[in-house]
Predict the 3D structure of the following.
Amino acid sequence: MITPPARDDVGDTLRLDDAFARRLERLRLPLRRLGHGVGARPGARRVPAADFIDHRPYAPGDDVRHIDWANMARHDAVTIRLGPATHAADVRVLLDASASMAAAPDAWRLARELAAALGWLALATGDRLQLVTAPSGDSWGPSTGAARGGAWLAHVAGIRAGGHGSALGPSLRKALRAAPWGGTAFVISDLWLSDDLDEVLASAPAPRWDVHVVHVLGREQLTPTIDGALALTDRETFEAIEIAVDERVRADYRVALDGWFDRVQSACAARGALWHLVPGDIGLEAALGPLLLPAAQPR
Amino acid sequence: MTFAAPLLGLAALASWLPILWLHRRRREAPIALVPSLAPWLALVAPPVPRRRRIRATWLLAIHLAIAASLAAAVARPAALSLGPPAGALALVMDATTSMAAGTRWSDAEALALAAIDTARGPFTLVSLGAEPRLVLARARASTEARAAVARLQPVGAGGDVEAAIGLARAAAGPAARLVVVTDGGVAGVVPPDAAVVVTAGGDGGANAAVLDAASTRDPERGEARVTARVANFAAEARDIPVTLLVDGERADQQVVALGPRESRTLAWRARPDGQVAEVRLAAGDALAMDDVALAWLPGRPLAVQVVGASGPVARALAADAELAVEEAGPATLRADGAADVTVVVSTPLGRLPPGGILWVAPEASDDTAAPPTERRVVSGGDHPLVAGLDLADALLGGLTVLEAPGWAEPILMAGDRVAAYAGVRDGRRHVVLAFDPALGDIAQRVGFPLLVRRAIRWLAAPALGASTPPLGSRVALLAPADVEGPGRDRVRNARGFEVDRPGLYRLYRAAGAPIAFAVNAGDARESDLSLRLLTARDAARPSGAAAGAGRPLWRAFAVLALLLAAAEAAWRGSPPRSTVRR
């Protein structure tokens, strides 16, 4: 698996455990739309190929290497072996690196590990990968090929949380701009946003884009254990309120949080996006489970 | 910058104590950082005002700064104003002893440098000490003026501010801006266009001083008597420890109780073989220089040789216990310098012995001769030799002189004739009594032996005059001599020297015994640090030309305090940087 970082905010290096990498390669990203360009994913179109799906009569100009000589011997007709045309899919990862993410170290670590694993898988399957960090707008890619895996992990390892602002919209639009034909986008965030989630999702309309909202929250955010008189201070705005926290307040908090989840889920459903709530302490493999499909599963 | 009410400001600064106490008591809720307040805001009812949080240390610093600004405003600060920038500058620096008290001298230096910085030049600097002295005349470079100010030292009593201003004006020209930096303890009239800056530092009203110390011989007992006048310039009574040291060894110690602004003369008997008596106060006040006074214990008596006979003169000399009188004739006259003074009574001398000479009833020279006559004294004059002596209407006989020669100054007049004169001729002092004391009735007057006594002492100290030179003065010697100052540094063949430090001085003459004298800093006017002669007058002056006060700054400090408070309120009350949405 991805080696946990030494520091709270994830160290400078991320690397894949061999066993985990093998398990990861038995999974695939849930990609429904293929983009332009040659890739590893078979499309609906047939082209002369070594992999046999169908025949068609030979036409002048066809590559003689694709003539099915056995079929010509049986049927005395010159035919060409057809296989599927392969395409690359466009994968976009939007990683929220705002200051609020840094306030929950477990969630931030998992968010980066998720981004690293998703990107690794995209590169390994020949898809075009681009990562954009919010709110700074820094981007990596688009890039393709498993050979870029090391650079990818190094880049993710170098991302630091703590930027000013918590808007996702501009960064998401930047990520989608290079692939107008659509693809798959993973939005990894705690969703403590300064812009409206519905507006954010509107910039990645379905069905052109398959959007997966990976909602990562730290354990302390989900089930707070703080107690007593506290000056709760917003990690991003440094706005503070003084509040006495007890069991009743914590229960009210959880109720409020559930209401928020409902609203987020509704907003995602309205825009055709899939919402995945990922607690920060569940581990990477468990977090990846709902996001990936078995490699053998038919599309 | 100066403060008109520093004590009030200090009292206001005491508000720091409750602020510190309250901050220490303040129990702040521990800070818990959360990714977002959004889920918590709904739980707080009623909605709390959104306030930004300031770290406790910053908050304390802001509150202390506000209190300090208010305290500074209450202390009525003012920027010292030396007037608009000017070209030429004539700077008169009060360098009297009182300026050495507390921080007065450093304040004065800073003010002088500020005046220099606001002028383009040329720069003229006059030191106002025992006598005004032109230190720098129309120097072009401000660095030169700054260096000259740095070289000045506050020593000297007196201070004629008018003479100093006159000197500065004469040197700098009428267009120069005149700035007088003083502690106010000098008397005189300052012209209205002068900027008088009175330093307030080290206001040591509780100063105590040894105003003077003296010693006399008591030949009958074989002892020396030491007297010293100690004074308390405080407004309340004080017990002041006084120590007498003879040659550095403690001879006596006592505690003197002095009432407010009271002075008292103390007397001791010292052993006859001592050389230097030192009277020292343990006053611990702002002016340490005047807590010590030195006095030379009289050594051998003055040696006087008398040539010729005069009964009244012989009686006057015999009445002086500090003289060793020896009779001599023209042939037996000692010319080795062993005699300090030679008294010549109606005897012509071919060769004059070293030292001063008192001529009594001399034979008149041709140009001043007149037939002997008898007149009464009509004027005693104000010469130091006769000042205060009761010689009026004394009958003089055998008057033979019409007028004093050019090198001499008349000291006693009888009608239109000069009865006595004194002066310096060929490096030697002469006193001439141009009458016969045996005639007339002057020998019966009390003033006559005193006149002889003064004349002997004036003649015995030909290099210095009849009195000790004051601190801060310059002494011009009639004949070159080696001079040794308080630091035991000796200047050879000096024609003059500066009395720039209190302490012991010695003059080594080519012939005769060395002359030693002590210079002390104690002075009734300089040691009274509460004296503000200039302040009172300048306050009454309509123009109010910068008598230590300039542009008031209390408003600036008050505004600063308000700005700090407003900034804190604005920061705490301002909306957050972004709006939290859920």
Q: What stands out?
A: The first helix of chain A runs from residue 18 to 25. The longest strand of chain A covers residues 38-48. Chain A has ten helices and 13 strands.
